[in-house]
Amino acid sequence: MRAAREMLEKSDEPVTRLMFDCGFISKSNFNREFLRLTGTNPTDYRRRHQTRPTGKAPAPQPALEPELLPAPRKTLFMSP
Questions:
Q1: How many C-beta atoms lie closer than 10 Å to residue 4's C-beta?
Q2: Under DSSP, is residue 73 helix (H, G, I), strand (E, B) or coil?
Q3: Residue 78: what pLDDT?
Q4: Is the pTM of this model over 0.85?
Q5: Which of 8, 28, 65, 68 could form a disulfide linkage to 46, CB 3.0–4.6 angstroms apart?
Q6: Secondary structure of 6-71 as H, E, C letters
Q7: Average pLDDT over residues 31-60
Q8: Which of 10, 36, 39, 8 is nearest to 22 (CA)?
């Protein structure tokens, strides 16, 4: 799986091609094993660890505005 992580970091090849290069024939098995070993799926791993030749960091994700967050649910209890 080390080879898969290195290829995800350094290559723009599709995940399915890397999966086949690592000897997997099922994407679900590859994803399951990758998640088990790294704690994340291959696509998210690539987004977080891919080296950028231009040296630019990935753009920060915008924070959700408080008014865009879902309102907390109120729990109603009924007495017997």
A1: 22
A2: coil
A3: 64
A4: no
A5: 8
A6: HHHHHCCCCHHHHHHHCCCCCHHHHHHHHHHHHCCCHHHHHHHHCCCCCCCCCCCCCCCCHHHCCC
A7: 80
A8: 8
| C-alpha–C-alpha distance, residues 20 and 64, integer Å | 38
Q: How many CB atoms lie within 10 A of CB 8?
A: 23
Q: If you count them, how many residues does the chain have?
A: 80
- Spell out the long-range contacts of 72-77 with Cβ–Cβ below 8 A and sequence spacing 24 or more: none
* Position 9, amino acid: E
User: How many of the other CB atoms lie within 10 Å of CB of 34?
Assistant: 24
Sign for the CA dihedral angle at 23, 29, 35, 37 comes to negative
